[in-house]
Design brief:
Blueprint (H helix, E strand, L loop, with lengths): L8 E6 L3 H11 L4 E6 L2 H8 L6 E5 L7 H9 L6 E6 L3 H9 L4 E5 L3 H15 L9 E4 L2 E4 L4 E4 L2 E2 L4 H11 L8 H9 L9 H14 L7 E4 L3 E4 L4 E3 L1
Parallel strand pairs: 1-2, 1-3, 3-4, 4-5
Antiparallel strand pairs: 6-7, 6-12, 7-8, 8-9, 10-11
Helix pairs in contact: 2-3, 6-7, 6-8
Amino acid sequence: MTTVEDTMNRVLLIDDDTELASLLTELLQYDDFQLDAVHDGQNGLQQALLGQHELVLLDVMLPQLNGFEVLKQLRQQSSVPVIMLTARGEPADRVLGLEHGADDYLPKPFTEAELVARMKAVLRRYQPAQQELGDSLVSAGVEVNIAKQTALWQQQDLQMTSAELAILACLMDNPGQPVDKETLSLKALGRRLMPFDRSVDMHVSHVRKKLAEHLPEVPIKTLRGRGYSWSAEVVRSS
């Protein structure tokens, strides 16, 4: 028998603010999210590694292990989507979170509507409709399939986050054509590009690094003032 909980997206909140956790646990259920809360980094990491959650909300300032260390260790074993919760006015925290593999970040304080919008955007690209880019894109030994959420090099998993995979797929889906950062932000983060926002650049940098471990030359070109492009030939396969 299917219960209400079975139809909800299960989310893990790692935050030592117990009042915030209680509030979000109550509020998010109305948006079909089941929230589990852990209040320190070490236990949060252990829970995240169990693979029982579709999304992780991760605070930066945590006892035992801080958010950056949790994310760093989590990314060694899991590509579960992660939204970092950062203090407003701390852009360095946001950059560090992206460097360690966060899919997105949200400055505190935030509204429930803003949080839900970010969560839904991340989950949409991580669990896309089957008809969207259902075919695989193959180029330079790299094979990407958005519907299956896979990025492979010669059948080896490239361990990309959902944001990285979305950016790679967008570039490969437009070979030889410039793709501006605004488009990449909408595709990968589900939001418009904000002034001084380096999120797209950070994600592209991660994609390049992961591809560079296998390819002699990474076919992602920077087009000054225009964005990025995929310079190799791409073949679609069913």
